[in-house]
Amino acid sequence: MVKSGDIVTMALSKGRILEDTLPFLRNMGIELVDDPEKSRKLIVETSDPGLRIIIVRASDVPTYVQRGAADLGVAGKDILIEHDGDGLFEPLDLKIAQCKLMVAVPKGVDYDSVLHSGSRLRVATKYVKAARDHFARKGVHVDLIKLYGSMELAPLVGLADAIVDLVSSGKTLQANKLQAVEEIHQISSRLIVSATALKLKHDLVQPIIDAFGSKIA
Ligand code: ATP
Ligand code: MG
Prior knowledge:
Helix content is 32%, strand content 32%.
């Protein structure tokens, strides 16, 4: 019998992170009992009675892990930058869900001359902290406009002069007549572990970290 204190909980978000994390679990001989993309279950058992998966929003993963409601999780570096990292360890770069956090402006706009014009740059983004730090380092004054999605729309309708967003193929930018002009961070997803789990469940959690580590491409 598995006692509840012996169960390890891993927080994952649906979509690319779940998809790209499954091979790490399979490599350990672990399969999910239900398909989270189809079932509405938020707690998913696995073939290992000692490991369960909870399904949360990508941006909520660090919160569950930090507060010990999950022992481990997988989260994008973009999300981790925005989150206050106390009580969170980030032992592995899994090198999955790779993309870049970039500044983009409408095609045809001369970004350098806009920067040097001295007027405040209106920047729409979901990544307020990363954007604020980036422009502060450059000494550029910005008005940050917090959005929760579809940043590409903002410059097209006059809400912003620029956006800070994740870019992979660049197709979304192109479809909206935008161009990437500056890279802020390389992004990939990380295995994160709660400080508490690392202390109190070390013998259960460390083998998972090791197994994930051995599978990184
Ligand atoms: P939600 O869809 O719930 O608002 P989200 O957009 O953050 O959340 P996903 O689109 O699944 O959720 O993104 C999860 C993570 O994958 C992001 O935090 C980022 O690290 C990474 N990611 C996002 N877009 C891309 C992309 N186009 N290519 C590669 N990785 C990406
Ligand atoms: Mg998304």
